[in-house]
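Task: encode each sequence below as structure tokens.

Item 1
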Amino acid sequence: MMPKFRAWLKEEQEMQDVLAFDTRGHSFLGIEGTHVTVEGWCDVFEVGKQAELMQSTGLKDKNNKEVYQGDIIRCISGCLHEVIWLEKYDGMFLGGMPMWYLSRVNNGYCWTGKEEIIGNIYENPELLEVE
């Protein structure tokens, strides 16, 4: 299965699905609007300057919504956490692979599927400030 991505468009202040990357991975195609079909036109955005990319974790929340990097999750104990990508954990790779984590969570937390997406760091940054 190919990894899925979405992007936060900085100037437009909106989220878009990513259709494809260029060969260098510095830009991507995004659908203009939310209900445009394949026959519709696409825009090209430069990663970092115009947009921030977020990869899907492959996990789903309790409402069957796909969980992406940058999402804000309410865990089973009611606390709020950002979904983050960590290359290292305590100075070593776990199983040789970088991994997805929830920020500020205790070691040993295991995804249950009962967690809930309540926003993301771009559209709802205030949610993490409250914690």
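Item 2
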Amino acid sequence: MLRFLLTRLGLLLVALWVTSVIIFLALRVLPGDVAQVIGGTTATPQQLASIRAGLGLGDPLIVQYLHWIGGVLHADLGTSLLTGVPVADELAQKMQVTMPLTMMSLVVALLIALPLGVVAAVRRHHPDGGILGVLGQLFAAVPAVWAGMMFIAVFSLGLGLFPAQGFPLDGWHRPWQAFHSLMLPALTIGVVEGAVLLRFVRSATLTALGQDHVRTAASKGMTRTRALVTHGLPSVGLSIISVLGLQIAGLIVGAVVIEQLFALPGLGRMLVSDVGNRDLPKVQSTILVLTALVLVVGTAVDVVHRLIDPRQREVVA
């Protein structure tokens, strides 16, 4: 197990390093000039050159990269070129919206996928099971932004159950208002991701129903449902854990997109604004943090899967 953990940790560090290089180089090919953004339209060429020199934008790319990644290794994500505020402080503030939204979306997705996926598999030869399968396919193909607009039209503008946009100015100091403002965005992401996960749950349940020990239990007098619950669901759970790493990545990406639609002051809105303003240190550190979060979750899922599945312990890391 120690060898497995060290191998996964090494792969995680390599993936983070490769990701940092890709992010750094990709952002340097974006059009625009941050010095022009800071100096404004009236800035002279001499002023723009002075701004670039002060920000180190004229240094070789390798020097800029080493300066940035060296700061990251010392827990310094840099400073915003436009606001002068430490990037870590702004990330911590925006995370108070993005992370609760992601967790709420995950709960919604699981509440949809787990029971309905099992029912769709158990009752696959009945009309209701077929309908659930079709609905899963349909909602999995729906873009989250389109689903969000439909939910706003129905639940906010139509029924008035949720606010259409916005987040309390004082944030979680008003917990119910903050929670209420995230309900509809979480429902939007959760329904779409839940439909995707429902298909995996249905497939895993069908596989479990066909396993010899489940069929044997059913042949000895157990109902098919009881045999599945008693002997099949553990294997279903293992399959779902394997998929959750990818699903959480989808939830984080969905949160970044949906924040724009619902005007939530999270990482998504901040990232879009910073890309437009060419605030490179802030953008590259934000993307690196999001990528690191996804990679860490994926690694944690691998470790948990190996811990609870005895068969995985026999596989060489």
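Check on item 2: DSSP finds twelve helices and no strands in the chain. The radius of gyration is 24 Å.
End of task.
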